[in-house]
Amino acid sequence: MITLALSKGRIFDETLPLLAAAGIEVLEDPEKSRKLILPTNQDGVRVVLVRATDVPTYVEYGGADIGVTGKDVLIEHGGAGLYQPLDLRIAQCHMAVAAPAGFDYLRAVRQGSRITVATKYTAIARNFFADKGVHVDLIKLYGSMELAPLTGMADAIVDLVSTGKTLKANNLVEVEHIMNISSRLVVNQAALKLKTAPIRRIIDSFAAAVGSATVPA
Ligand SMILES: Nc1ncnc2c1ncn2[C@@H]1O[C@H](COP(=O)(O)OP(=O)(O)OP(=O)(O)O)[C@@H](O)[C@H]1O
Ligand SMILES: O=P(O)(O)OC[C@H]1O[C@H](OP(=O)(O)OP(=O)(O)O)[C@H](O)[C@@H]1O
């Protein structure tokens, strides 16, 4: 049995065409079913639904053999013990620093001021500001980061941006582009050794579907 960990929503939706390329069809709609283990048209393949941030953990500890997860989540997790053969080029967005239009971020940076930054992505934010030599106090949040500067709790945020609509709706402006983000395939190293043929078949089908070469194990 091959177990594939996905999160509900955009990762699940955008992985479906890749699964189809591997001849795998998920037999239940996660938006309609309360089941966390979904059967597929292949007896030897099942999908488990977990929180987006838990996908690397399930694959690391063998709860799943393969997973699909954002580069953001992978960096925060650390990626220990995970084989990352493929950029799937799905769920594309970028990580950015944003601040209210009234906050002169560049001036604060130039003057060496201490900046308070709210984010769910503390590892990415810490590394980014450390590389720039900017002094920051980080406030860890689990969602709705945009609210932090609006309530006076933080000067700026580090968050994902796609269309920019969320920032605009909350009167925030992007002031730094940190990195491009897309989702990766992650594989449990031991599972790859024990179940090489079926896992390779999935990796190769995904690679062909996204038109990219795989990274050797
Ligand atoms: N607006 C967006 N456009 C494109 N991709 C995005 C966007 N927001 C997030 N992503 C990518 O999709 C992944 C999954 O996001 P999703 O919103 O489904 O989970 P989440 O709500 O961030 O996670 P959790 O449920 O654990 O809090 C993210 O890790 C990121 O890589
Ligand atoms: O630039 P945009 O296209 O507006 O996208 C950016 C938004 O997308 C993500 O949230 P998400 O859509 O995952 O919402 P959620 O955290 O409430 O699930 C991210 O945290 C931003 O808030």
UniProtKB/TrEMBL annotation:
What reaction gets catalysed by this protein?
1-(5-phospho-beta-D-ribosyl)-ATP + diphosphate = 5-phospho-alpha-D-ribose 1-diphosphate + ATP
Q: Which CDD domains match?
A: PBP2_HisGs
Q: Which keywords label this protein?
A: Amino-acid biosynthesis, ATP-binding, Cytoplasm, Glycosyltransferase, Histidine biosynthesis, Nucleotide-binding, Transferase
* Keyword set includes Glycosyltransferase: yes
Name its pathway.
Amino-acid biosynthesis; L-histidine biosynthesis; L-histidine from 5-phospho-alpha-D-ribose 1-diphosphate: step 1/9
Q: Which PROSITE patterns match?
A: ATP_P_PHORIBOSYLTR
Query: SUPFAM superfamilies in the record, alphabetically?
Result: Periplasmic binding protein-like II
Among the GO molecular function terms of this UniProt record, one is: ATP phosphoribosyltransferase activity
InterPro entries with a match to the protein in the record? ATP_PRibTrfase_cat, ATP_PRibTrfase_CS, ATP_PRibTrfase_HisG, ATP_PRibTrfase_HisG_short
Q: What class of enzyme is it?
A: transferase
| Annotated EC | 2.4.2.17
Q: Transmembrane region positions?
A: none
Q: Which Pfam families match?
A: HisG (PF01634)
Q: Where, per UniProt, does this protein localize?
A: Cytoplasm
Q: Which residues form the ATP phosphoribosyltransferase catalytic domain?
A: 51-206
- Hey, what's the signal peptide range on this chain? none
What's written under domain? Lacks the C-terminal regulatory region which is replaced by HisZ.
Q: What does this protein do?
A: Catalyzes the condensation of ATP and 5-phosphoribose 1-diphosphate to form N'-(5'-phosphoribosyl)-ATP (PR-ATP). Has a crucial role in the pathway because the rate of histidine biosynthesis seems to be controlled primarily by regulation of HisG enzymatic activity.
State the similarity comment. Belongs to the ATP phosphoribosyltransferase family. Short subfamily.
Question: How is the subunit organization of this protein annotated in UniProt?
Answer: Heteromultimer composed of HisG and HisZ subunits.
What's the protein name?
A: ATP phosphoribosyltransferase
